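Working notes for the structural subgroup meeting. M.R. asked for a predicted model of this chain before we commit to crystallization trials. I am recording the input and output together here so anyone reviewing the notebook later can reproduce the run.

Input as submitted:
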Amino acid sequence: MVSEMFDMRKPSAGAGETLKHFGGGYSAPPRLRSQVIDPSARMKVAMPGDEVSAIRVVNLSKAYRSGAANLVVFSGLNFEVAPGEKLALVGESGAGKSTLLHLLGGLDRPTDGAIYFGQQDISILSGSELAEFRNREIGFVWQIQSLLAEFSALENVMMPLLIRGQSRVQAEPQAMARLHEVGLRDRASHRAGELSGGEQQRVVLARALVGNPSVLLADEPTGNLDFRTGEMIMGLLEDLHRSRQFTSIHVTHNLTFARRADRVLALERGQLSALSSALAVESPHV
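Returned structure, recorded in token form:
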């Protein structure tokens, strides 16, 4: 179990925040209402024209208190993501792309609006329900290396399963299989500091895959990598998206990578606009 692993060594200062990403707790206050998570409801919500959406965002707003004023990041966002779609989200730094991704991943609460995964509005889940939802439904890949430095690659990949309640004996072969899938089986015993930047990002990807999520959220997954390594990571993400039939949302500043998505949305001045994948590389706004 996770507690036993932490008893063996001192966790790093950022361990709590990292664990939160894949279901290890949630600190925001729960809403007054909650819904029981129904896995069978996933991806079954009917939209106009009988189309089916994996994710549906309705009138989504996010604002932060700044002194006596509210800082509005965005307001009234509405969009849908189809099952199996790969969506790229682009925009200038500070536009709110990462904030939106955190809301979609259940890591933060919207000021207003709803986020539906299938028939489930995750914005009204309690903290514990939301943590369970993240653990089972969403895989996260971040720009900043989020590995726990005191653990091996294998132990890092195992972590979401241990949080889910599996024993180490149950979790280890699944984690090893995911490391093999990203080409790092022979690096399983190495700690983060013993891995290159590209290898660390592949471990992060393996950890995102280990719980068999339905949705993969990636925030600048190649941002800290050189072009060649970034190209390798993006190729791996694309291969996994196709083979596992994920619904994927990638935040990126790399317009070459963005145009390889099925669809591109630009977040600018608090509003979303659709771009063709071809036009994205020429737009001066992203």
